[in-house]
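ok, trying the design again with the full structure, not the truncated one.
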């Protein structure tokens, strides 16, 4: 695979149905999984980590908006077809509003922002910042839902911000205004996920996750559509680019969501959410392997701080289950 000039998450989008039911635990739950579930978890992390690699390849050719639009449009078409084949009622008449709102917050805006960042940042950078989503989720939950912002969560938030700052300032990509803006775009995407999670808890917790995943992808495609004439495609669409675009849409959105839902059913939300810690590792590996992106000590320190911060927020070190605020 060719190296992109300037080389050095989908994210994942449906985490809103997970945050409301996370069980606090002092242990890293991956150690108690069956081998089949562990394989699914690692596969999911590898796929979602690859999404940042694919965006890094596509964005310079298609532009950020077209990269995001192709991802959600192709994914929604495939997922909607599956819903029709399995005779699942999407209930567009009653669910159209949450489909559009969460489509914007969980797909359209984050995917466009991550694609914009991919013009400048290494794939691993974006994936590491994406892992801060639970941190912002804790902050938004405290502000919007009245959830308790404990000292542990607050410390985790500060550690996570420090990890991102460390990565951006001292990582292998030279610190420039463009790098800073791209990093802020990634932070904005992570905050979108957090706001989407809060909205879901208040307004759409009763919608089945497969329906929400499909409907929100379709909503995202409709939201991005009017803006496409403002952002013409930048380069030539070769067969290689077409294959990568299909992989981003079908593998990283459609297939990945259904693997995730299978994990939720088999192991529960706590263990399924451990994929958050693994995505940056795969993104770093894919970027280094296929794009020649650099991984240095600063990258590993920044990644470690973010993963530690996310662990502090997600797993509260108590045997008591976290209180759900889903309506």
């Amino acid at each position: 695979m060719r190296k992109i000039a300037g080389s050095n998450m989908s994210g994942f989008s449906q985490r809103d149905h997970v945050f409301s039911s996370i069980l606090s635990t002092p242990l890293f739950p991956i150690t108690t999984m069956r081998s089949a579930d562990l394989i699914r978890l690692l596969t999911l992390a590898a796929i979602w980590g690859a999404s940042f690699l694919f965006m890094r390849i596509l964005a310079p050719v298609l532009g950020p908006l077209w990269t995001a639009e192709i991802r959600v449009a192709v994914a929604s078409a495939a997922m909607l077809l599956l819903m029709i084949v399995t005779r699942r009622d999407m209930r567009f008449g009653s669910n159209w509003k949450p489909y559009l709102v969460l489509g914007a917050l969980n797909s359209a805006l984050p995917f466009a922002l991550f694609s914009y960042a991919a013009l400048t940042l290494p794939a691993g950078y974006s994936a590491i910042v994406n892992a801060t989503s639970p941190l912002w989720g804790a902050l938004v939950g405290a502000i919007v839902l009245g959830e308790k912002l404990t000292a542990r969560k607050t410390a985790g938030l500060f550690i996570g911000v420090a990890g991102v700052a460390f990565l951006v300032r001292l990582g292998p990509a030279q610190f420039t205004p463009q790098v800073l803006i791209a990093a802020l775009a990634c932070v904005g995407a992570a905050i979108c996920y957090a706001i989407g999670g809060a909205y879901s808890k208040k307004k759409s917790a009763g919608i089945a996750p497969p329906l929400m995943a499909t409907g929100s992808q379709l909503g995202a495609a409709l939201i991005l559509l009017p803006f496409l004439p403002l952002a013409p495609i930048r380069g030539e669409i070769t067969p290689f680019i077409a294959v990568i675009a299909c992989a981003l849409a079908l593998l990283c959105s459609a297939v990945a969501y259904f693997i995730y839902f299978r994990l939720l059913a088999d192991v529960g939300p706590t263990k399924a959410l451990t994929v958050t810690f693994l995505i940056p590792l795969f993104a770093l590996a894919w970027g280094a392997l296929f794009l020649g992106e650099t991984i240095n000590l600063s990258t590993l320190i920044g990644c470690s701080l973010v993963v530690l911060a996310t662990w502090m927020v997600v797993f509260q070190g108590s045997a008591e289950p976290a209180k759900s605020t889903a309506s």
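Keeping the full-length input from now on. The radius of gyration is 18 Å.
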